[in-house]
Every structure is written in C-alpha cells, then in structure tokens.
Write a structure and sequence with these properties.
Layout: H1 3-20, H2 24-28, E1 31-38, E2 43-44, H3 47-51, H4 54-58, E3 61-71, E4 75-84, E5 90-100, E6 103-110, H5 117-123
Parallel strand pairs: 1-6
Antiparallel strand pairs: 1-2, 3-4, 4-5, 5-6
C-alpha cells in the first residue's frame, strides 16, 4: 500500500469504526467541510445532516461484519453486512468514499432498500 492509500485507509476505517460505535464527533472529524452523502433512502449535502440520524439507526444495529476493503489514493470501498434487530435482518452493504486532502468528501451507500421501505413509511 502506498502512503496515500494508507492515509485513505486510516481515515475511512477511523470514520467507519467511530460511526458504528456511535461516536458522532469522532466520525465527523473524518468528514470534509464540503461533504455529500447519498443512499437509496436518503441524501444529505452536509456532515451534520448525514450524522443526525446515526443514533437512531444504531439503536437497531446488532453487529457489523466486514467482507472487503479496497483503498486507493483518494477513494475507498467497503463491503460489509449490517445485522439489525428489524424485519430487514442482515443488510449487505457497499459504501464508496471519495477523499480530498485526507478527509472524506462524499459517501455513496449502496444496498437493497426494499426491506426498509415499510419501516420508512411507518416512521413518516
């Protein structure tokens, strides 16, 4: 791994680990000032909007199993299973990150949102 991809790995893993332990300030520290998030269920144009729903989401997460990690100089992709205490059960997830100057500028989350649609409708 080159030093740039090592830095990318440290940033992305730092964010991933902080997020899933519910440490919003530590997760936010890895995000750039200009940041965008996109998933099948929601999107956000800033870090605060992206992280605002994290505590609620983590209430249903029972575990995370990493499947694959790919790192480059300014991008990374993680593939993992999120285990939840919801009808959705285990959610296979791919997450693509773009970075600039060692901070995450965008995250694209990819998963099958079908099992989440009824729950989203119930929550409004």
């Amino acid at each position: 791994m080159t030093s740039a991809s090592t830095r990318t790995r440290q940033t992305v893993r730092g964010y991933h680990e902080a997020r899933f332990r519910g440490d919003v300030p530590a997760a936010a520290a890895h995000l750039a000032e200009t940041f965008a998030f996109q998933s099948p269920l929601m999107s956000s144009a800033d870090a605060a909007g992206h992280l605002s729903g994290l505590p609620g989401f983590l209430q249903v997460v029972t575990g995370v199993d990493m499947i694959s990690e790919l790192y480059g100089e300014s991008e990374a992709t993680l593939v993992y299973d999120v285990h939840t205490a919801t009808p959705a059960g285990t959610q296979r997830t791919a997450e693509h990150f773009r970075l600039d100057d060692g901070r995450i500028t965008s995250i694209m989350l990819i998963f099958d949102a079908t099992p989440w649609q009824p729950m989203k409708a119930m929550m409004g």
